[in-house]
Structure prediction request, 289 residues.
Amino acid sequence: MRIGMIGLGAMGLPIAKRLLGAGHELCAFDLSPRAAGEAEAAGARICPTAGEAAADTEVLFCSLPNAAIVRSVLEEILGRESIGASVIADLSSIAPESARKFSEMAAARGITYMDCPVSGGVGGAAAGTLTVMAGGPDQAFLRMRPLFETIGRKICHIGPVGAGSGVKMVNNYLLGCNMAAAAEALVLGAKIGLGLDTMYEIIRESSGRSFIIENKIPNFIKKRSFEGGFAVDLEYKDLGLAVETAKQLSMPIPMGSTAVQMFEAARAKGFGRQDITSLLKIWEELMDT
Ligand code: NAD
Prediction:
């Protein structure tokens, strides 16, 4: 297939490599010459603009930082006289409301927009083991499914457009709240004299367990390694999507609102590009542990 790809960052580049590895032709665009250079080295044809990456392709993927950037890219593509791609699969994490708006914009040009956020991180993108949460019409999902299977292991058609972003938003809401709670709980435990190994061994088998306990303690917290992983800035954005969506529904979400402030504190400390476990360092410093 001839595939367009906009956004070749931490997720987009390994996804592009998986698609190239499966024998597809890839026309790619990224504002960063370094990212574009890496995709070119992997066999992609680099286009000078996003519009050109969509012009001569059958389907288009986007993997972009936020909805404002997705919108600007879509406006450029949809404003062109001729658009080759008939399906746009947006892998970015955005609010369901944004996805529905983008679907209307695309439909006005006869193009199907699908929100297809992913989970599984950079490692999952490289290994082709992402979870793909697709929202959009059945026909477009069936057409895209073989491509989703190239990049992911669990491929789910969640429902109409917006549904994929919705389930991703709820998942990342819980991730952010779990991380914020774990940062407090682990420092509280340390303060009363419990070792990290003890807390890990017991809690991973007990009712307080979560992805943070099972995965983040051994891979980040225990190693005191906060580089890579899932960035504070990205989780801050994802929590913000949930807080904003709840506000539109006049629904109080005090857990999420508090977690946002904890992520804000981590950003103020300069941990924005570090893994979300760096929240712990704020409470360690506060409590001198
Ligand atoms: P990233 O910042 O590493 O990559 C984004 C890329 O988009 C960059 O290369 C940037 O140069 C490019 N870009 C920005 N504006 C552009 C524009 N106008 N035109 C073309 N390219 C542009 O981000 P990422 O970690 O790859 O995340 C991408 C999306 O996937 C985000 O929505 C994120 O929330 C989501 N996500 C990330 C992870 C993760 O672990 N990193 C996991 C799941 C989902």
